[in-house]
Amino acid sequence: MRMPWHQGDVLDLASVGVRVDSLTDVSAIPGGPGARLTAIRTQAVAFRQEFLGTGTPDSVTTCDLVTLPYPTRFGLFRASRAIAPFLAITNRMLVIRWAESDGTPRVLLFEPSDVELGRYTPYFDKLVERTPDVVSKRVVTEHGTVVGHLSRLGIDPAEVDYLMFDHLHTQDLRRWIGTTTHQADLGGQPKPVFPRAKVIVQRDELAAMADLHPMQRPWYQPGAYRDVSPESFLPIDGSVVFGPGVAVVKTPGHVFGNQSLVLNTSTGVWVSSENVIAAECLTPEFSRMPGIARWAREWGQEIVLNANTIETTVDQYNSIILEKTLADRSQRDSRFAQFFPSSELTAAWTNPGTSPTFAHGAITHR
User: Fold this and answer.
1) Up-side HSE of residue 255: CA atoms within 13 Å toward CB?
2) Keywords of this protein's UniProt record, alphabetized (predicted)?
3) Which of 155, 228, 281, 341 has its Cα between 20 and 30 A from that of 180?
């Protein structure tokens, strides 16, 4: 399958923001993953100090999209002793606004998932086939759409500069960025909802999507990217500060090109990704969910990762430590970090034993 960004192609696109030099590629550090973990802790402290000096964005708004089931064995890895085979997660979009030094306004959408098209991800598509409609209606709740939320916020889609996801699992972007040819399943050739927006993505993930490994295939929709223009993507390498209090840091592991959003707000530094599904997974010793604290203690693990694809588990662990070191503690409960899962664990009566001890629910900054 030839993707628009085939490995032999050269993508000559404009750069964005300022590269973060204090967060270097630790893969070349001798001594193995333990040495890389030590280096990550040191680098995270250095970057955090630099980042605090960049200022804060104008606003951060949280928009709920959908609550849906997710396997417990994935979301809580090997730690949970809950009897429920599924837990519930809520996918949310963050709308971040800031101004450049020359006054130019910017709008970034983090996790603007097209929920309708995301259902055709191979894993979820098969799950839906096995689930009666009456059950699906009870366990899936749609809260709002990307376009609907923007309308409520008074943002014209033409004002959006950037779309960003921590990774492209489940994402189908054809309606957001348009296509180059007719799309039979969409009944035509969709014009882009976001005509000037660029999709910020790590170059490593684009390369991986050009030739998916069998362990990756259940979670991507590669066919949805055949007819999109490469000019719609803005590939980056590593970590970048976009604007005052807004950055992306590379956090490989969950996928090779995973990335996390970092925000400096009125309550301090937040980090957001899908590396874990609950804030307590960064401090499992405080979790009241069955098995979590005990598992972390017995195995000497300081985090509980989200592991639907175990591409490079050690790197994902190390990336979560980077996120944990960058984030401030919650002002509501200092036991938990200001880590905002892009898919956050949500209490549901259908899923006993998986109710979170603590949930953020939203990031709000004005």
Assistant:
1) 29
2) Hydrolase, Metal-binding, Zinc
3) 155
- Residue 183 is part of a domain; what is its CATH number? 3.60.15.10
Of 143, 134, 124, nearest to 69 by C-alpha is: 124
Residue 88 DSSP SS3: strand
Give 65's contacts (C-beta < 8 A, 6+ positions apart): 90, 91, 92, 93, 111, 113, 115, 142, 143, 144, 145, 146
Number of structural domains in the chain: 1
Bridging pattern class, strands 343-346 and 86-99: antiparallel
Give pLDDT tens digits for 155-201. 999 999 999 999 999 999 999 999 999 999 999 999 999 999 999 99
Query: What would the pLDDT profile of 198-237 be if each residue is shown by its tens digit?
Result: 999 999 999 888 888 888 888 889 889 999 999 999 999 9
Q: What is the model's pTM?
A: 0.93
Dump strand ranges (E) for the chain.
18-19, 59-71, 86-99, 105-110, 141-142, 162-164, 198-202, 233-236, 240-243, 246-250, 259-265, 268-273, 339-341, 343-346
Please give the order of strands across the beta sheet that includes 268-273. 18-19, 240-243, 246-250, 259-265, 268-273, 339-341
Task: Look at the alpha carbons of 137, 171, 17, 100 in this order and tell me if their dihedral is positive or negative.
Answer: negative
Range of the domain at 247: 18-346
Establish if 352 belongs to a structural domain.
Answer: no
129 occurs within a structural domain: yes
Give me the sign of the Cα torsion angle 46, 25, 15, 272.
Answer: negative
